[in-house]
UniProtKB/TrEMBL annotation, chain B:
CDD domains: TM_PBP1_transp_AraH_like (cd06579). It is found in: Cell membrane. It comes from the Bacteria. It is a multi-pass membrane protein. This is Autoinducer 2 import system permease protein LsrD. PANTHER family: ABC TRANSPORTER PERMEASE PROTEIN YPHD-RELATED-RELATED, AUTOINDUCER 2 IMPORT SYSTEM PERMEASE PROTEIN LSRD. Its main location: membrane. The chain crosses the membrane at residues 28-48, 60-80, 87-106, 112-137, 149-170, 182-203, 232-251, 263-281, 288-306, 312-331.
TrEMBL record, chain C:
It comes from the Bacteria. The keyword Repeat applies. It comes from Cryobacterium glucosi. Residues 13-249, 259-503 form the ABC transporter domain. This is Sugar ABC transporter ATP-binding protein. One of its GO terms (molecular function) is ATP binding. It holds the Pfam family ABC_tran. Keywords: ATP-binding, Cell membrane, Membrane, Nucleotide-binding, Repeat, Sugar transport, Translocase, Transport.
TrEMBL record, chain D:
It is found in: Cell membrane. It comes from the Bacteria. Part of the ABC transporter complex LsrABCD involved in autoinducer 2 (AI-2) import. Probably responsible for the translocation of the substrate across the membrane. This is Autoinducer 2 import system permease protein LsrC. The chain crosses the membrane at residues 12-33, 40-59, 65-83, 90-114, 120-140, 152-181, 211-231, 252-279. Pfam families: BPD_transp_2 (PF02653). InterPro entries: ABC_transp_permease (IPR001851). Its main location: membrane. It is a multi-pass membrane protein.
Length: 327, 349, 507, 327
């Protein structure tokens, strides 16, 4: 930092970094897919908590709607501001790649979380759960609820979401391998938009009268689908599961619209991502397989293949345990 | 046949100046100059007040960001100057991007795929143009329709997938910069287009036709301007450049997707109108439009660097747009306050 | 003339020293008009004398720049047409102003529809009233059809119905008869007289002196935006009125030199456009001026527009020098040597917001370019040249044409077309709204052009202009050429007869 | 009867019936199931409201592109009121939403009427500005279904004798607006202004006042739509209603409202809205994949305006030939 103070409001990041611990640039900015998304609100809050713990500067910027080109502009701006690390959930695995590489060339560490880019564009990926783990838990939940036979469908986020597509692929394999009587009849895209997800749910139920279950591996989708089911004739007849946050799903679980759904703790994900970024800035890790770092209260983590750190296995929420969670 | 009337000898009695006002007035007292001055002011203030604004990196990112809008704004200026509008540009861009992705994936050589995309853009523009001229439909309605249609085809063709593997040569070309100047190589293309469109609009008979059509389609028709042909050509140019912008977009982000540049049409139109082009047609100039595009781009870039959130940028864009169309009204209102006398009702323009 | 105006009490309408300018165009300098109750008052003057402008001031559409405006002795200041309406003034405007998408009935009653409970429009009552109005005017128009596509005459009748249906104390009619046939005119006059007898004041504007003298009791003459005179109709004559209108003897207005007539340049054969004109054929030779006469709305403008390729036509042929000229392509017509100075110079002739220079060179822009680019020095030279030849009154070539006076605008249009070096010049209403001095200049110019070998087709609604300028007169009635009259045989009577009576028998 | 058969609304109504028929034959539950019938009525109701307002403005030869942003703002206002003023009566929230919408519409109208500048530019400006205010206000917050009272949410989904409340509201609005436009002087004057603004001036119609009223109505209806959006979808955030403006203009255009004003009815616009959304829902049932639906909608819009043009050309040719005969 130059110490020049032409405008106080314009440069919080560097100013704070200078006053931070030693010469490390702990200015860390979260760049979610889009703002106004409950899931990212929670995860970024976890990040904020971690950053406060180690005395860095937390910031969150992002586009209003999930779009890769808008993310690129924000990455560019962060590059110029010279932040210590960007923690990003990618809207597109490649479109933001060159912008990220430019950021890294300028000395900024890049950590992806939630939704990854191609590995060559980032220093570290904090994986909430393995695709196998997520696919398996989703498939287990839905097949158990429908009695391991009948039609199911998937309500996804946007057609290009990296993580979603990976999970869907794995789910298909899992269904084919272990649940021969369950058929996946359709996959529709709600674009992580409430209204679209809601209307797509309605259309899904209309087009497939024999549908027994819906998997929505996105927090926006599952909430919208639950809201549709809650007041429809299909309530209790069509099972719904997926990835949701307890606060959004509480009502639906309590009134029986939804029996069980899964998620990791997004706050932990953000928390871990922030410590991962710190470790990169400190030089504790470089992204090499086998590197180890400590993530505050979460304990020690080891970097796996492709510079990936795994948070853990997803957790299943049911009527019995949902009251214990608030995020 | 030469007309000597009333008498050649009298021709010299009246001396005509080519211009009524001195050069500096003609230069400074224009709508375009107001936008340019605003642009310069914003740049100066941003350089002083916003840290890291005055760097070559900023310049580079800024130019990369505004390039597609800048490109499409050029032919859009022609269309709006004729009193028409094209809302389908962003969809054409998306379709071009998708087509490029599909064709390269199918193994077509990139240059051939590019040509195919450009042809597609021409056809998309041709459809707009024919519906507006031959069928005689309002362009606003037509292009709302093709906005959905072209985007729908783009999304339909590629579905869930995105094509992301493009030859490094091409992606590099779209992203690289001239050494340390920060100026993207792609600006060569943009500058070339600017030169072409300045020449086309301001220095050719075709451009004179556009201005005449914009002010009075009927007079233009009576004067031997091929009104329909000119309109179709302008729509085709818009389609062509939108397709070109789609190619640039694809290479810059290294990703061909159906939803690329969704909603960009409004940004383009906002920039063109901000640059002083009249939505009624007739009035406007390319340099004003360029200033309009850059004004919005610089504002966005500076505000983002200053950690002002994107919502404020939206509000400022909207307010600027409204102010820019209201400002002539304010001026005439002030004038009418000064000369407090009954003035004629302004008839429909 | 049974009833003379009652001069008891204040006049129904009084205007004194009214002035009005539109930018640089001064429409009225000092207009006076005093109309009494129980009177039909004629207002006459040449085109552009300012009659319509005066009407629009009374109607509240324009606000006067200076002068007094009294209604029944009280000074008024209308800010809108609604206020004038509320004060009992009804106006039939010169150009029909209807809503094309709405039905005939709605057009008549817009803004004052009869209503029932909850303000609901009483459609039945409205329709019945419309029917009644049409019966009174003895016309048959479907009250439910949209106004779109109505003939000018029908539109004018709806304007009349609209005006008489209002219970107005002052009724102003700006050339209501211009497009009407004899029967319709008679019915209108009967209605007008009965309104007068009810004690209302009427103002009647017309260029037809027979009508003026048959209907009105008082006559006011205007010239160049100025009041000239007011007389009782019995105490004056047509000659007297015309002299006052033009400000000098009529005879020396049009200095016509007859030029030697040469080869046929333009041939039009069997031109037909459904609903507009039928089987139109004529030829134009080098050196002659062919006049196209007829009532307003006869379809003359449409014919020449089709000939020049601005409008489409269904069948027939247009040839220049024996070679056929393609349809609907003004550029081709220009290349073949035609030029068209259109009727409405503000809408069709000029790009008002553009400069004098740009307008002068609009039709020659391709010729003024080098390698596809416009050579601006060449362009400016050409513009200077033509502005000079026609003596356009302006300081600079970049002046907006819209700010010039009407006559100078017309000169710019003329220059724009003469600069294309035409062989046949078609000119529609060459002197509409042009001041007297410029008018003579235009006529001399036309005469001189013919002398230099141009073939000229001139449309004019002013008989003296036709009589004074044309070598040959073609009379158009309802889209057909009904007579061809040589200069020698052309008189006001012979032309008017052909314009109102078809050679074929029409029921 | 003759005019009914020839009117533009009939054609599009027929198209709607055909779509419903075909889809029902393919899949009876599209119409003959409790949810199918409900959704058929419910899904288009919100767009119907916005399209009716849009039609009123277009009839006066203007256009309001800001409706999507107005819906967003009022929907968020609705949520905030329920959160910030516990126990607020639902009727007050409705009034507040409509009042905010009316105020925003009035601002549009004032800029257009007094500024004498084209509505397209003004409302493009307010589209940005209102959305910006929405984002500024909502930030990354969102309103969840659990924040809203059950009674209010029930309005958005439940029905009175098989007809959903939302549909009843939309129907009342359509009928009242249609009645006003047809039977009141004010309504007829809106047509007159759109048909020929100069003539309207000559007639002494209160052009400025009427334009203000048209925009105000459009805003108020968008405001109502915003409130109902919150009731139906339960969640609103800063992006609610994005892109709705083009759908509304599209619905009006499909419904035979001429974009240059003066003709068309709100019934047409309403049916247009229903057709647009019903086709959207029918396409998946008819086996057209999710991704191609937008293309079909685009084709539909173009087809509708081309058809309209052809019909009006035929009508005017017919009128000319009638004149030929009578002359
Ligand atoms: N809105 C306007 N803007 C500019 N000039 C105008 C306008 N209206 C009229 N003028 C000019 O004012 C003058 C008087 O026009 P006006 O229409 O009053 O004439 P008039 O006596 O009614 O002629 P006519 O017999 O042809 O109807 C003309 O020179 C005309 O060009
Ligand atoms: N707006 C219109 N809609 C329908 N028909 C029209 C319209 N204007 C003109 N016409 C028809 O076209 C024909 C010619 O009209 P127009 O007034 O142009 O004739 P004109 O001879 O050129 O008159 P002018 O003496 O004014 O030059 C008439 O039959 C008229 O009814
Ligand atoms: Mg007149
Ligand atoms: Mg004419």
């Amino acid at each position: 930092a130059t110490g020049c103070s032409s405008s106080a409001s314009t440069d919080t990041s560097t100013g704070a970094a200078a006053s931070g611990s030693g010469d490390k640039n702990y200015a860390i900015t979260f760049l979610p897919k889009n703002l106004g998304n409950a899931y990212f609100d929670t995860s970024d809050k976890g990040g904020s908590k971690a950053i406060t713990e180690f005395g860095g500067t937390y910031a969150e910027v992002g586009p209003a709607t999930a779009a890769a080109d808008a993310q690129v502009s924000f990455i560019n701006t962060l590059t110029q501001q010279g932040v210590g690390a960007i923690i990003i959930s990618a809207d597109d695995p490649t479109a933001i790649g060159s912008a990220l590489n430019e950021a890294r060339a300028a000395g900024t560490k890049v950590v992806t979380f939630d939704s990854d880019t191609d590995p060559q564009y980032r220093d570290l990926y904090i994986n909430q759960a393995t695709a196998d783990g997520i696919a398996k838990i989703e498939v287990d939940l839905i097949t158990k609820q429908i009695g391991d036979t009948g039609e199911v469908a998937i309500l996804s986020a946007s057609a290009n979401a990296t993580n979603q597509n990976a999970w869907i692929e794995t789910m298909k394999k899992e269904l084919a391998a272990n649940h021969p009587n369950v058929t996946l009849v359709d996959t529709v895209y709600g674009n992580d938009d409430d209204q679209t997800s809601f209307d797509k749910t309605a259309a899904l139920l209309q087009s497939h009268p024999n549908l027994k279950g819906i998997i929505s591996p996105t927090t926006v989708g599952i909430a919208a689908a639950a809201r549709y089911l809650q007041t429809s004739q299909y309530k209790g007849k069509v099972a719904l599961t997926g990835l949701g946050t307890p606060n959004q799903m509480r009502d639906y679980v309590n009134d029986g619209t939804v029996t069980a759904f899964a998620l990791w703790n997004p706050a932990d994900l953000g928390y871990l991502a922030a410590y991962g970024a710190k470790a990169l800035i400190d030089g504790t890790i470089t992204g090499k397989e086998g590197d180890k770092f400590t993530a505050g209260a979460l304990g020690e983590f080891t970097v796996g293949k492709d510079a990936t750190v795994l948070l853990g296995e997803p957790f299943t929420f049911t009527k019995e345990n949902i009251a214990d969670f608030n995020f | 046949m030469t007309i000597s009337a009333p008498a050649d000898s009298r021709t010299g009695t009246r001396v005509y100046a080519e211009y009524g006002r001195p050069f500096w007035m003609r230069l400074l007292l224009t709508r375009e100059m107001a936008v340019i001055v605003a642009l310069i002011l914003v740049i100066v203030i941003a350089s002083l007040e916003v840290r890291r604004f005055g760097t070559t990196t900023t310049l580079g990112f800024l130019l990369l960001d505004v390039a597609p809008i800048l490109m499409i704004a050029l032919p859009m200026t022609l269309v709006i100057m004729m009193g028409e509008i094209d809302l389908s540009v962003a969809s054409t861009l998306g379709l071009s991007s998708v087509l490029l992705g599909i064709l390269t994936q199918a193994g077509w050589p990139v240059p051939v795929a590019i040509v195919a995309c450009l042809v597609m853009g021409l056809v998309a523009g041709l459809i707009n143009g024919l519906l507006v001229t031959v069928v005689g439909l309002p362009s606003l309605a037509v292009t709302i329709g093709t906005l959905a249609l072209y985007r729908g085809i783009a999304v339909g063709l590629l579905g869930t997938t995105a094509v992301t593997s493009f030859p490094a040569f091409w992606t590099g070309l779209a992203q690289s910069k001239f050494g340390s100047t920060g100026i993207p190589v792609a600006m060569v293309l943009v500058v070339a287009l600017i030169v072409v469109f300045v020449a086309l609009l301001h220095f050719t008979p075709f451009g004179r036709g556009i201005v005449a059509i914009g002010f009075s389609t009927e007079t233009a028709h009576f004067s031997g301007v091929h009104v329909n042909r000119t309109k179709v050509v302008a729509f085709m140019l818009t389609g062509l450049i939108a397709a070109l912008a789609g190619i640039y977009w694809t290479f810059r982000y290294g990703s061909a997707r159906g939803d690329n540049a969704m909603g960009l049409e409004l940004s383009v139109i906002a920039a063109v109108l901000l640059g002083g082009v009249s939505i009624f047609g007739g009035k406007g100039a390319i340099h004003g439009v360029i200033a309009g595009v850059l004004l919005i781009g610089v504002l966005q870039s500076a505000l983002r660097l200053a950690n002002v959130s994107s919502d404020v940028i939206n509000i400022i864009t909207g307010a600027l747009l409204i102010l820019s169309v209201l400002s002539p009204r304010f001026l005439s209102w002030f004038r009418s306050l000064r000369f407090r006398r009954a003035t004629p009702e302004k008839q429909k323009q | 003339m049974s009833i003379s105006p009652s001069n008891s009490g204040p006049p129904a309408l009084e205007l004194r020293g009214v002035a009005k300018a539109f930018g640089s165009v001064v429409a009225l300098t000092s207009a006076d008009l005093t109309v009494h109750m129980n009177s039909i008052h004629a207002l006459v003057g040449e085109n552009g004398a300012g009659k319509s402008t005066l009407v629009k001031i009374v109607a509240g559409l324009y606000q006067r720049d200076a002068g007094d405006f009294l209604l029944r002795g009280e000074s008024v200041d209308f800010r809108s047409t609604a206020e004038a309406k509320a004060a009992g003034i009804a106006v039939i405007y010169q150009e029909p102003t209807l809503f094309p998408d709405l039905s005939v009935t709605e057009n008549i009653f817009m803004g004052r529809q009869p209503t029932q409970r909850f303000g609901r429009i009483d459609r039945k009552a409205m329709r019945a009233e419309a029917e009644e109005l049409f019966t009174r005017l003895a016309v048959r128009i479907d009250p439910d059809r949209p106004a779109e596509g109505l003939s000018i005459a029908d539109q004018q009748i709806i304007e009349i119905a609209k005006a008489i249906s209002v219970d107005a104390r002052v009724l102003i009619m700006d050339e209501p008869t211009a497009a009407l046939s004899g029967v319709e005119v008679d019915r209108l006059f009967a209605v007008a007289r009965s309104l007068r007898d009810e004690g209302r004041a009427l103002v009647f504007i017309s260029h037809r002196f027979d009508e003026v003298f048959a209907l009105c009791d008082t006559i006011t003459v205007m010239r160049d935006g100025q009041y000239i005179s007011t007389d009782a109709i019995q105490s004056t004559s047509v000659d007297e009125i015309v002299r006052r209108m033009v400000g000098r003897e009529v005879t020396d207005l049009f200095p016509k030199e007859v030029a030697p007539v040469g080869d046929v340049l333009l041939e039009v054969e069997g031109l037909t456009s459904a609903g507009v004109f039928h089987d139109v054929s004529f030829t134009v030779r080098s050196g002659e001026i062919v006049g196209l006469s007829g009532l307003v709305g006869a379809g003359r403008s449409e014919i020449v527009r089709a000939v020049f390729g601005v409008d489409r036509y269904d069948s027939g042929a247009v040839r220049m020098h024996g070679k056929s000229v393609p349809k609907l392509n003004p550029t081709a017509a220009m290349a073949a040597g035609m030029a068209l100075v259109p009727e409405d110079r503000r809408k069709q002739g000029l790009v008002l917001e553009s400069s004098v220079a740009r307008n002068l060179t609009l039709s020659t822009r391709t010729r003024l370019s080098r390698f596809g680019f416009i050579d601006s020095s060449l362009e400016n030279r050409a513009a200077k040249d033509w502005a000079g030849r026609l003596e356009v009154k302006t300081n600079a070539l970049d002046t907006e044409v819209g700010t010039l006076s009407g006559g100078n605008q017309q000169k710019v249009v003329l220059g724009k077309w003469l600069s294309t070096n035409p062989e046949v010049l078609i000119i529609d209403e060459p002197t509409r709204g042009i001041d007297v001095g410029t008018k003579a200049e235009v006529h001399r110019l036309l005469s001189q052009l013919a002398g230099e070998g141009l073939g000229i087709v001139m449309i004019s609604s002013e008989l003296p202009e036709i009589l004074g300028t044309a070598d040959r007169v073609l009379v158009v009635r309802e889209g057909r050429i009904t007579a061809e009259i040589s200069r020698a045989d052309a008189t006001a009577e012979s032309i008017m007869f052909a314009a109102t009576h078809s050679t074929e028998s029409i029921q | 009867m003759r005019t009914f058969l020839r009117s533009r609304e009939t054609g599009i109504l027929a198209a709607l019936v055909i779509v419903v028929l075909i889809t029902t034959i393919k899949n009876p539950s599209f119409l003959f199931s409790q949810d199918g019938f409900r959704d058929l009525l419910l899904t288009p109701s919100i767009l119907v409201l916005v399209a009716v307002g849009q039609a009123i403005v277009i009839i006066t030869r203007s256009v309001d592109l800001s409706v999507g942003s107005v819906v967003g703002l009022t929907a968020y206002l609705t949520g905030r009121l329920f959160i910030d003023v516990p126990g607020i009566p639902i009727i007050v929230v409705f009034a507040a939403g409509m009042a905010l919408g009316a105020a925003l519409g009035l601002l549009n109208g004032a800029l257009v009427a007094f500024g004498k500048v084209p509505a397209l530019v003004i409302t493009l400006g307010t589209l940005y500005a209102y959305r910006g205010i929405n984002v500024l206000w909502a930030g990354s917050n969102r309103v969840n279904a659990s924040d809203l009272p059950k009674d209010f949410l029930a309005l958005g989904t439940s029905a009175l004798l098989f007809v959903p409340y939302l549909t009843i509201i939309a129907l009342i609005v359509v009928l009242v607006a249609g009645w006003y436009l047809r039977n009141q002087r004010g309504g007829r004057e809106l047509y007159a202004i759109g048909s020929d603004p100069d003539a309207a001036q000559l007639y002494g119609l209160g052009v400025t006042r009427r334009i203000l009223v048209a925009f105000l109505l459009c805003g108020a209806l968008a405001g109502l739509a915003g409130v109902l959006f919150a009731a139906r979808y339960g969640t609103t955030n800063s992006q609610t209603g994005t892109g709705l403006e083009l759908q509304a203009v599209g619905a009006a255009v499909i419904g035979g409202v001429a974009i240059f004003g003066g003709s068309g009815t709100v019934y047409g616009a309403a049916i247009g809205a229903v057709l647009l959304l019903t086709i959207n829902r029918a396409l998946p049932i008819l086996g057209i994949p999710d991704f191609w639906q937008q293309a079909v909608v685009g084709t539909l819009i173009i087809g509708a305006i081309v058809l309209d043009r052809v019909l009006s050309l035929r009508l005017s040719r017919q009128l000319i030939s009638e004149r030929e005969v009578s002359a």
